């Protein structure tokens, strides 16, 4: 005789979740599609052989992988540019990449000598910083996946040191080992002009949701433009510019002076940076006129000017402006460089003008020069500022102007 069934109260209860009929979350759909693409690429990896074209692997595996990275748009764009340099695809006028990887199979392209020649050519054409970034992209998104999927046995670059330098490049005195590519005088002038006259509201669309308004977005863009302009015109470090307060910026006799405090200066030695270019001076005079509290940051949070701008948000906004310059002015170098390119460019521009070492120390706050700088040498910074003014207007400078004629 069959056992009596369990009483209703003793039966295990199974919670049933009703099936949702609500429309799918767009974020969930995007994550599902991203996982599907990743799995599809992983399934495709097993089909690659050393006889396949290396360019096909980069275009079908490496580039889509970069596109799906959870990184800022500027970072993904920089990685894509580095991968295109490796292929030998370059839009810069006069650049011929004869050592690019596009013509190689995986077998012939992942040999040490081939990769060394490719990276050395990138260093020669685009600078050592771009070459080092390209090596990182190559190892992380090409060689490591090939090794992981047992297409190649090991990365030929693992543990190898490459001398990636750009002959005749300017170096920052803060670090003699760094080789930073620089803009041409024409490119530098074009960047200054663009930053001076571009409309901050250009291309800004109102947000679809969230607490920020269209005016907030325009304020972010305007602050990033002004911060970039100050660096491009003076060579001021990004950190130093971000630590400026309103009272540190003054105007007199058509000139602008930035009294950088020891707390804000990287070298911990106060100095005065001068600007004599009338267009740049008038631009920042208008910015200063809208600031009433002398203790507020000069480049504060665009939506809350009394606070310091968050580092990551600042870098993202400034990077977007640099990429905009690259697109608008067709300057390929700006696609892989950060804001330190302005400092390196200005040093290169004034290198052959006869500007004294004291002027360099006064304007740039070199770690070495700051140790030897005395207060009287600060006037030499005015001479350098006047030299930059002449260079931007297309004039030539044969030596230091007389500081006594330039002082406020």
Compact overview of the structure:
The protein has 408 residues and is mostly helical.
Describe this structure in words.
The chain has 408 residues and is mostly helical. The protein has two domains: 31-148, no CATH class; 185-406, hpI Integrase, Chain A. It has 16 helices and five strands. The strands form two sheets. The chain has a three-stranded antiparallel sheet. Strand 4 (300-301) and strand 5 (304-308) form a beta hairpin. It starts with 25 loop residues before the first helix and ends with a helix.
Distance between the termini: 112 Å
- Number of discrete helical segments: 16
- CATH class value of the largest domain: Mainly Alpha
State the helical fraction: 40-55%
Rg is: 27 Å
Instruction: Identify the strand order in the major beta sheet.
Output: 1-2-3
Domain module tally: 2
Largest sheet: 3 strands, antiparallel
Structural class: mainly alpha
The number of strands is 5
Give the arrangement of secondary structure elements:
Elements: H1 26-45, H2 54-67, H3 73-87, H4 106-109, H5 112-126, H6 128-148, H7 185-197, H8 214-234, H9 238-242, E1 249-252, E2 255-260, E3 271-275, H10 278-289, E4 300-301, E5 304-308, H11 311-329, H12 340-350, H13 357-364, H14 367-372, H15 379-392, H16 403-406
Antiparallel strand pairs: 1-2, 2-3, 4-5
């Amino acid at each position: 005789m069959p056992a009596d069934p369990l009483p209703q109260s003793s039966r295990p209860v199974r919670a049933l979740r009703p099936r949702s009929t609500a429309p799918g979350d767009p974020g969930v759909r995007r994550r599902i599609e991203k996982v599907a693409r990743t799995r599809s690429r992983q399934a495709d990896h097993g089909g690659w052989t050393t006889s396949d074209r290396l360019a096909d692997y980069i275009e079908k595996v490496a580039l889509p992988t970069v596109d799906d990275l959870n990184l800022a748009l500027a970072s993904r764009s920089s990685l894509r540019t580095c991968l295109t340099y490796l292929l030998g695809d370059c839009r810069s006028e006069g650049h011929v990449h004869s050592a690019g990887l596009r013509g190689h199979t995986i077998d012939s392209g992942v040999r040490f000598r081939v990769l060394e020649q490719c990276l050395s050519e990138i260093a020669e054409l685009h600078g050592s910083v771009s070459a080092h970034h390209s090596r990182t992209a190559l190892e992380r998104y090409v060689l490591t996946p090939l090794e992981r999927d047992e297409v190649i046995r090991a990365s030929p670059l693992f543990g190898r040191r490459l001398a990636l330098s750009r002959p005749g490049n300017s170096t920052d005195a803060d670090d003699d080992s760094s080789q930073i590519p620089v803009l041409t005088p024409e490119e530098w002038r074009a960047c200054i002009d663009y930053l001076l006259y571009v409309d901050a509201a250009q291309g800004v669309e109102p947000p679809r949701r969230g607490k920020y308004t269209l005016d907030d977005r325009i304020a972010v863009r305007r602050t990033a433009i002004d911060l970039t302009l100050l660096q491009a015109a003076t060579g001021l470090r990004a950190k130093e510019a971000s630590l400026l307060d309103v009272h540190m910026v003054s105007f007199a006799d058509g000139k602008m002076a930035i009294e950088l405090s020891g707390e804000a200066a990287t070298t911990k030695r106060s100095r005065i940076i001068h600007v004599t270019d009338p267009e740049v001076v008038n631009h920042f005079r208008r910015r200063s006129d809208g600031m009433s509290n002398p203790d507020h940051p000069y480049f504060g949070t665009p939506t809350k000017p009394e606070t310091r701008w968050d580092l990551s948000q600042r870098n993202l906004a400034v990077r977007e402006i640099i990429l905009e310059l690259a697109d608008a002015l067709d300057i390929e170098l700006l696609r892989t460089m950060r804001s330190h390119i302005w400092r390196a460019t200005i040093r290169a521009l004034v290198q052959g003008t006869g500007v004294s070492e004291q002027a360099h120390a006064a304007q740039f706050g070199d770690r070495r020069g700051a140790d030897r700088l005395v207060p009287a040498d600060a006037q030499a910074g005015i001479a350098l500022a006047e030299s930059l003014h002449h260079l931007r207007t297309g004039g030539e400078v044969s030596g230091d102007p007389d500081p006594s004629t330039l002082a406020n």
